[in-house]
Amino acid sequence: MAEVDGYVVLIRQYRAPVDQMMLELPAGKLDVPGEDPAAAAARELEEEIGYRPGSLEVLATFYTGPGFTDEHMTVYLASNCAEAPSRPHGPEEEAAEIVRVPVVDLPGMIARDEFADAKTLAGLLVYMQMRS
Predict the structure, then answer these.
(1) For 28-71, what is each residue's pLDDT tens digit?
(2) How many other CB atoms are there within 10 angstroms of residue 84's CB atom?
(3) Do residues 78 and 40 make contact, with C-beta atoms less than 8 angstroms apart?
């Protein structure tokens, strides 16, 4: 999750399993065996939204669905970001839209159910709690 000048930078992209556009935190997988999660987060931010983090802080770690998978996720807060060329991979990222949301708008957007992605909700809720 990237915070830039009072905005949170999100990505709106099509998600085939649910057949809809979703507004989400940028995310990705650990593509390289043994890759450091923070390094992967920095790489994914640059690829997906075109920002290089100056610093990363862990916001939350959680299992995505422990009843059926052992997938574990870490949400980072990227701050002191510098613009960098984005490098989208695959058709979903190439068609994605980068969306800058004012931090002050987040509570209302959550209340209106504008986020349906669990990692995004978890990350934004922890972020807002941290800021209060």
Answers:
(1) 888 778 889 999 999 999 989 999 999 999 999 999 999 999 98
(2) 14
(3) no
pTM for this entry: 0.89
Q: What is the pLDDT of residue 95?
A: 77
Q: Which of 35, 83, 92, 97 is catalytic?
A: 92
Q: Which CATH number fits domain 2-131: 3.30.230.10, 3.90.79.10, 3.40.190.10, 3.40.50.880?
A: 3.90.79.10
CA distances from 99 to 27, 63, 65 (A): 14, 26, 27
State the pLDDT at residue 91. Answer: 61
pLDDT for 99:
96
Compute the distance between CA of residue 96 and CA of residue 94 in angstroms, rounded to an integer: 6
Question: Which residue's structure tokens are 């862990």?
Answer: 58
Q: Is 92 a catalytic residue?
A: yes
CA–CA separation, 4 and 18 (whole Å): 30
